[in-house]
Amino acid sequence: MKHRSLKKMLGATLTALAALALTAAPAAAKPAALAPDAEAQLDVMASSGVIAKELNALYRTWDFILNNGSEERTHYVFYAAVTDLDRNGRLELLISRHFLNNDLLYYASDDVSEEQWDGLKYLCENYPGEIYGAAYEISADKTSLEPLEINSGEEFPDFTRLHIKGRKTDGHLIYYVDTQRMPRDESRTSATDRYDIIHEAQTIWLDAGVMGSGTLARSEGTAGVHGDKVEPFYTSMKLIGTDKDIDPYGKEADKFRRKYMDGGRRVSFTAWNELEQDTRAALASSWQGWSYEK
Questions:
Q1: Does 119 reside within a domain?
Q2: Can you give 26-91 as a three-state secondary structure string?
Q3: Which pTM was predicted?
Q4: Are 212 and 205 spatial neighbours (Cβ–Cβ below 8 Å)?
Q5: Is residue 294 part of a domain?
Q6: Coil, helix or strand for 187?
Q7: pLDDT at residue 145, rounded to an integer
Q8: Per the domain annotation, does 293 fall within a domain?
Q9: Looking at the 3D structure of the chain, how many domains does it have?
Q10: pLDDT per residue over 1-19, tens digit each?
């Protein structure tokens, strides 16, 4: 087995997160004038104490993982994004919490190549084992940051994979999220060629201070790692609304993806280490990546 210390894993994770943040936030589109006082709202958001609370929780979680002796198999990080989902001019702060399933790295053989190691690490970081989160919105008088109620169903959406193109449906702006996970297999005791993964096509919307979330489709399959490349292959796909099983690579699945998952750019998010270094600047950078796309 190739064991690596939490300190080394953390350093590698920070490097990957910096690259991930760059690829997840393409050319920044300037926010429209629906929030002309965005700078003042960002000041409120940065001074609210929410990010400080998340950072404290992060370090407490790391201590818990270390005390349990599971630092080689589990890691925890969080991300934040600034949005205006309901386009009411009051900014939201989305928090996405990722528990990484690092069993792939823990059980990797001692002679695994650096290239293969990078591929395994990419799979762990981009397919978290568990995903949770929280959301906040600037208050009506714009003096505080208030928590939003979230009705998320069985699986919490991964806010870092939120497509920023909102679509009007039944009077609501609906946003699409493609959440991908790699749940831990408790029976695993050695390395393998492929790893179980899950993909969920989800939606979120915000109305009157309540965020809703639903799942449109769920796919299951495996991912293989070839060098530093990850190759997912899905073996099943279910349309949740009709409880219908379809071929993940058939015409019906292609039609579904074109209709629901072609959402354009994803939200611009920022990682915990950037937030710790300069909370206000990190939040402002995320907001600059937002746009009111139709």
A1: yes
A2: CCCCCCCCCCCCHHHHHHHHHCCCHHHHHHHHHHHHHHHHHHCCCCCCEEEEEEEEEECCCCCCCC
A3: 0.87
A4: yes
A5: no
A6: coil
A7: 98
A8: no
A9: 1
A10: 444 444 444 444 444 444 4
